[in-house]
TrEMBL record:
SUPFAM superfamilies: TPR-like. Residues 83-95, 349-364 have a biased composition (Basic and acidic residues). It comes from Geotrichum candidum (Oospora lactis). InterPro entries: NASP-like, Tetratricopeptide_SHNi-TPR_dom, TPR-like_helical_dom_sf, TPR_rpt. Residues 79-132, 318-364 are annotated as: Disordered. TPR repeats lie at residues 175-208. PROSITE patterns: TPR. GO terms for molecular function: histone binding. Belongs to the NASP family. This is Tetratricopeptide SHNi-TPR domain-containing protein. It comes from the Eukaryota. One of its GO terms (cellular component) is nucleoplasm. Residues 175-211 form the Tetratricopeptide SHNi-TPR domain.
Amino acid sequence: MSDNIESDSDLAFGNPEIKKSILDGSKHYAFKEYELAAEKFSEASELHSVTFKKDNPTILFLYGRAVFQIGVSKSDVLGGNASKEDKEGSSDKAKKGSTSNADLKESNPNIQLADDVEDDDDEEEDAEEPAQDDFELAWELLDISRALFLEQVDALSADTSKNAEEIKKVQTKLAEVYDLLGEVSLESENFPQAAEDLEKSLDLKKKIYPVTSSLISEAHFKLSLAYEFCVEDPVSKDKAIHQMELAIKSVKERLKESATDDASLVKDLEARLEELKKSKAEEGKELEKQKADVLMGLIGQDASEGMKLKLASVLGEGGASAANDISSLVKKKKPKRKIEDQQPLTSETSDKPVTKKQKADNDK
């Protein structure tokens, strides 16, 4: 992920306290002291909200990114399942001095926070509310940042020729926000949402960076990962394979352009591509087996050996298409004669059936 957001000059804001909190938070983040970084960015967010009566999407992004890293570090240590106590502790610590929900709502009344609840005098019911974990808090902060950046783009788009550079600047930040939202969803195993956000991030990055940029190849790789686990989508594996191929193409073109050789990176990506293709092939075989089981069930356990052999032959010769076409197994009735082909009745034969002799006489 690039540091376009963090290095931007608007972090000064003309307020020394805000600037100091952001610089301190950035230092802690650089040393992977994510909880301390989250505290400092939280302080900066609150100071900005109080001073300017509105929230700043850049600070919210930095705050959300630090909280996300807290969750990732705990997942790594605890095998992906942080204890309830750890989650509560880290979230409370990260929220210390944070912008209150009331402040966020006041600055932007259109924002709906995930933990907004109506005031209730029943303290026991409030006490039973589950604590918000790191990934949930990170998502909420980043989603607000996304909404605010989109508002900026919409406002600037009123005069695209005049604001072209500024629009590109905001879109660069927005691409990073979508990228991190995708990562949060990957960690939370919400793969359809991850794919949606990573698609938007890639679309924006393609407008900003050349195909040889490492940010482009990285975006293709992440999107491939999200597609791979979108099991509800019947063509998700095809999408994952396509994105991995584009990631490899981007890396190869970059290496060619820079006249460098990173065979290990290309080899790793190609190995990953082969895994995806193998996985798709295995899924196809499993689907064929399921179809065969269904058809065997349709003809029943008491079917003759000849019928079973014929079914096995159909499945073996035609694969999926043959499995879907079982017309050869269905006994067809002889077609009835058309009405016009039947011998018409005459006045002489209307009361009795036509005999063979009469039919022969009529044919003469």
